[in-house]
Structures are given as C-alpha cells and as structure tokens.
Structure to design on (655 residues):
C-alpha cells in the first residue's frame, strides 16, 4: 500500500537549484516526481457529473487508459476553445517570450523547474497550437517553436497544469497583459475532455453537485456543526445564538465556503460571522442547499463551474431573499466578479444590496447582488456601528495575506486591512512586493491542496512563507490573517512547515474576539477557547 | 486500484490505504491496518473507532476534530476529550489514522 510521501525537511527543500537542464526544453521529457502530483480521480466522481472516460487509472502509471482518438479529441478541443474564447486565441499569439513573468511564479521560485516559468508553462500548449493551427508552425516545425502532440506531451500538460494555482501573479508583470491562469484553465479543460482530473478536485465537484457543498455535508450535519459553534460562543460570551436555516422571507442569504463549517481554523471565522450577525440583529438565513461559496468546478471546466453556481441564485429565489452576502472565500469572489454575471446574470429577481444597518448601497454589486462580508463589515465600522475592543487581540501580532482571488481577481485590498486595524492593535505589513496585487499565493489554490503533493505545496508556498518569516523576525508577527478558506487550511500547513511560530486565522475571527456584544459576560477566552493572556493577569492582580 | 487482504478476503483501498467502501468494514480490517503501522488496538482505540463509525452512519462524513474531542469528553470523560489524548492513541493524527482504521473516507475541499 502506497503511503503519502513526506516532503524533505525545510533545510533540504530550500536548497533550490535554478540551473536549467542542458537539453532543449522540448527534448527534456517530463518526469513525475513523487510528492509533486495528485492522485487520479476515482471513476465514480466522473460518472456522477457525466464527465467522459470514467475508469480506474493511476497518474503514476504508464498507461492512462485514454480513448483511442485522444489526440483528435484534444485538437478538436483546442479548436473549439480558440473559437469560443478570444482571450485564448490572443494569448496563444501575442507572447513575445520576453521573460518578465519567468521569476514571478511561486512554483518556479520554489522549485527552480524552468517549466514552471509561466512563459514556458504556456509554451507547453502554445507549441502544439503552432504546430496544428498556424502556418509558420506547420511549415517550419521546431524552428518556429512548434511540436507534435504526443502522449508524453499530454502527460507534460497534466503535470504542469496541476503545478499552477491560477493565481495570476505573473499576469501582473506581463507587458501584454497575458493571463497565464487562463491558459492553465484551458489546459485543464482539455485534460478534462479525456477524464484525467485529480481525485482532490473531482471529489469536491461531485459532492457539491450532489449535496450542495465540497465536503458533502448533509443538512443535519451543517446544522449540528453550527450549533456546536454556538455552544462555544455561549461558553465564551454567555450569549445563546439561534441562527436560522433555509428560512423563507429572510432579507439576506449568507453563503460561505463549507471549509468554514468543518475545518480548523475556518470554524473560528464562522463563529465570528455568527456573533457579528447576531449582534446586528441581521435578518439573514443559512442555506443547507446553497452551502458552498467555493467552486471546484472552476478547476475542471467553465461549464462545470457554471453548473455548480446556479444553486446560489436558485436558492435565493426559492427563499425570496433580497440579496446575498458571501463569506471569506477566495475563488468565489473571482467567479462572482468575473464570471457569474455572464453565466447567470443579471440577477434581476434580487434587489441591489443595501446594508440594513448603515443604509449603504453596494452599487458595485448591482448586477450580481452579492457582497463580500469584509465589504459589509468595513462599512459597519466606518459608520461606527460596532462596539470593538481591539485589546482582546493584543496577544496577537497580525499580518495580512492577500488571497490571490480577492486581490487580483476583485481588487479587495483596503477592506480587510481597515477591519484588522480596528479590531487589532498590532498590525504589520509584509514587504511591498509580496502583498496586494503582487501577493504571493499560498501554493495550494485551484484544487492543489491535497496531501500527496505536499512537497509541491511547500515549494509553491515558499515565497509567501519567506515573507511571513521576515515579519515574524522583524516584528514578532504570530498571526497570519486572510479571507479565503483554502488559505486558512493551506497556510496552516505551510506555516507549520516553514514558520511554525505563526498561526493562521480568518479576519472575522479577529472581529469576533474584539466585538463587544450587548449583555455579554466578561471575556476570559478567545474564540479558540484559549485563555486571554491579559485578562488572566488582571484577575490575579485583583485577587492580590 | 490497490487492495488489502484480510482473513482471505480482498478489499479495495485508495492510494493512501483508505477503504473504498466504508460498508465493507469489519473489526479485522482495523486490526490489519493498525498492525501494519505497528500499533496494537486496545479498548481505548476501539472507543474512538466505534464513535467514528456511529457518527459516520448518522452524518455521512467523519466528524470535525472539535466534535470528536467534545463527544469523547462527554462520553468518556474530560481527561480523554482533547487532541493530545487522541494523538497519543493515533500518532499520525485522529483525523487521518483513526478514520482510516474505521474505514471512513477522507474529507476533501477547502480543508
């Protein structure tokens, strides 16, 4: 029985060899290195969503059990996509291979593998495009940067398109604005045509399709988990919260990634939402059907992502809510901002989101009708609607990790910082080149947060971890805040590996700690049920 | 698909050794898996494994770790209701190792 390979020790892993192989990249065959790729999807997950070529196979095997006409399917797939997506055609044609993106990718920085340079990763497909779709490539072959599509080339696509988190840092530096993430997305769509997705992506996709969320949490499980969080909140504050589920006629539908309902430290973020909404007396409801903010379908194909997201609007319609509030999720916001309106919009049956507390109308969401919870909370603070005691977070020295999708995909830079500065007294920024639109990815996004590819994840997360280490050493930072569920899970593992002194939390966990609730008892514990250091001393002093 | 053989019968497992079909599980499978890790299952282990099996039957997913510790504290006493105790029993982690012995699949998604 195969056991998951453990990554080498950090001291070993950080010895990165940036020397490229001596051979031309086209003549350097792909080598599948243990710890850097994911397991193949089980056939049942493909069957559950009608994906093609469901069969038992292993990504480590020679034979991937592809259909006989696999090459035809891929070439036809490229042709279709060139027609359908103008961006794809453009990105295939306009790259001048200047190399500005080369050293901007966290996977290249962490691995030294030249095929992780965004320019070369894109070239893996571009070379095939040239061979079959351009005159120069057809006539001059390799001299024109063109090559045949072979079985090994397909495997190379698979290996490297699952070594890209679609974070889009490279695109920030591209003088032509080429979005290499979109090339990866096209690559993955093609891979998907042959039924070659990973288990870690297809499991959540199938779950989400069947049960409404990636984890496959059923309605009674969701309810039980949230009630358990309410028990903890009662222990900490003395206040009993009774959230509602699937309630028709609520003003707001709240949707968050299911990781917040299950994983650590996501559940503490979730407790923060519960406390905040209770304190505001917000007329909102949870849904056990639209119970997922994230969308792993996005890591398979545009069509699948579209299919999975419809339930949010369907549920909003069924419940008759006015608008939708979304939790601290990463790729949810890239999708809401850049795709949702094209897929299912405009959501005319809903109203333009308006904060019932401050009266602020969220004009930018007037088509999608969805607002990110940090926008909502920052607005509350701006209007002085929250009673906050930031000293309850005084044991934390906090830095903020911009999630790739909320920052580069949507431009949420200020809101989370504004909130953190009001709920914490100690906030420190990481170096400028590693935050905001230039943020470094957690290294595990876009469905790469599995266990079997841990070495890859630790390599990809190395630049981010390095910046955290810097502020840890300089300012004593011990908490890495973020607004994405994959971040909360992935950065926790990343920190344990590279900077074990630093813990990870969502921004609303910090809000929950600082929020002074009406009628609460004196807080002696934080949301993790750990003693608040300052309070202990105070009590002792009082006793003396 | 990898398999394991327990008492002359073959069972399918995934690449990490998790049982493919949780309903095929029986105590012999847990004992077999534990033995491979060099662990002898005592009554303390069985208490956790039985809890996991019961929970999964009700909820179709392994419990989040917090619920596991809370429930263990409730039914087996406060001194057992913490992650330290669970890690002593299952050094590779209660979420992974104990669930594997109990024949449950691994949760996936943003976790």
């Amino acid at each position: 029985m195969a056991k998951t390979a453990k990554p080498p020790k950090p001291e070993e892993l950080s010895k990165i060899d940036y020397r490229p192989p001596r051979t031309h990249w086209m003549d350097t065959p792909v080598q599948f290195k243990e710890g850097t790729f994911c397991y193949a999807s089980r056939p049942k997950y493909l069957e559950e969503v009608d994906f093609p070529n469901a069969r038992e196979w292993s990504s480590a095997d020679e034979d991937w059990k592809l259909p006989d006409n696999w090459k035809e399917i891929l070439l036809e797939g490229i042709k279709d996509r060139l027609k359908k997506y103008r961006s794809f055609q453009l990105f295939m044609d306009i790259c001048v291979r200047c190399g500005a993106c080369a050293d901007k990718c966290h996977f290249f920085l962490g691995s030294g593998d030249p095929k992780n340079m965004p320019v070369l990763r894109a070239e893996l497909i571009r070379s095939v495009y040239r061979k079959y779709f351009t005159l120069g490539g057809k006539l001059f072959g390799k001299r024109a940067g063109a090559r045949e599509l072979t079985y090994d080339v397909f495997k190379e696509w698979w290996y490297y398109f699952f070594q890209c988190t679609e974070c889009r840092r490279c695109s920030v530096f591209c003088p032509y604005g080429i979005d290499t993430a979109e090339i990866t997305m096209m690559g993955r769509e093609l891979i998907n045509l042959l039924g070659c997705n990973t288990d870690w992506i297809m499991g959540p996709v199938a779950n989400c399709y069947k049960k409404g969320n990636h984890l496959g949490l059923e309605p009674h499980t969701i309810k039980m988990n949230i009630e358990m969080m309410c028990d903890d909140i009662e222990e900490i504050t003395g206040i009993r919260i009774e959230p509602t589920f699937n309630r028709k006629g609520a003003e707001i539908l709240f949707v968050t990634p299911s990781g917040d309902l299950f994983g650590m430290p996501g559940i503490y973020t979730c407790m923060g939402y519960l406390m905040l909404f209770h304190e505001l007396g917000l007329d909102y409801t949870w849904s056990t059907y639209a119970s997922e903010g994230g969308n792993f379908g996005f890591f398979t194909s545009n069509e699948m992502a579209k299919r999975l997201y419809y339930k949010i609007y369907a549920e909003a319609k069924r419940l008759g809510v006015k608008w939708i509030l979304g939790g601290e999720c990463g790729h949810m916001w890239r999708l809401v901002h850049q795709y949702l309106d094209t897929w299912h919009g405009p959501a005319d049956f809903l109203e333009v989101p308006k904060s019932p507390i401050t009266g602020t109308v969220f004009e930018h969401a007037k088509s999608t009708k969805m607002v990110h919870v940090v926008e909502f909370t920052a607005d509350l603070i701006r209007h002085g609607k929250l009673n906050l005691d930031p000293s309850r977070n005084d044991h934390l020295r906090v830095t903020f990790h911009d999630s790739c999708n909320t920052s580069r995909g949507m431009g949420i830079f200020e809101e989370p910082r504004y909130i953190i500065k009001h709920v914490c007294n100690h906030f420190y920024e990481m170096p400028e080149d590693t935050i905001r639109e230039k943020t470094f990815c957690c290294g595990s996004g876009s469905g790469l947060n599995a266990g079997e590819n841990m070495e890859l994840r630790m390599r990809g997360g190395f630049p981010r971890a390095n910046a955290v280490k810097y502020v840890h050493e300089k300012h004593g930072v011990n908490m890495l805040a973020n607004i994405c569920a994959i971040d909360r899970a992935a950065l926790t593992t990343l920190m344990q590996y590279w900077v074990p002194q630093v813990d990870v939390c969502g921004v609303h966990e910090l809000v929950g700690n600082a929020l002074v609730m009406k009628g609460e008892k004196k807080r002696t514990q934080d949301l993790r049920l750990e003693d608040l250091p300052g309070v202990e001393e105070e009590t002792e002093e009082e006793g003396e | 698909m990898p398999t394991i053989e327990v008492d002359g019968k073959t069972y399918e497992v995934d690449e990490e050794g998790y049982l493919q079909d949780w309903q095929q599980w029986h105590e012999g499978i847990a004992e077999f898996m534990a033995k491979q890790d060099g662990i002898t299952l005592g009554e303390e282990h069985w208490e956790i494994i039985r809890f996991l099996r019961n929970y999964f039957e009700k909820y179709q997913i392994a419990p989040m770790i917090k619920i596991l510790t809370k429930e263990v504290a409730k039914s087996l006493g406060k001194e057992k209701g913490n992650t330290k105790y669970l890690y002593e029993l299952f050094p590779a982690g209660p979420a992974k190792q104990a669930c594997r012995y109990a024949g449950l699949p691994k949760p996936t998604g943003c976790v």
Notes: The longest helix of chain B spans residues 43-59. The two ends of chain B are 25 Å apart (CA to CA). The CA atoms of residues 13 and 19 of chain B lie 4 Å apart.
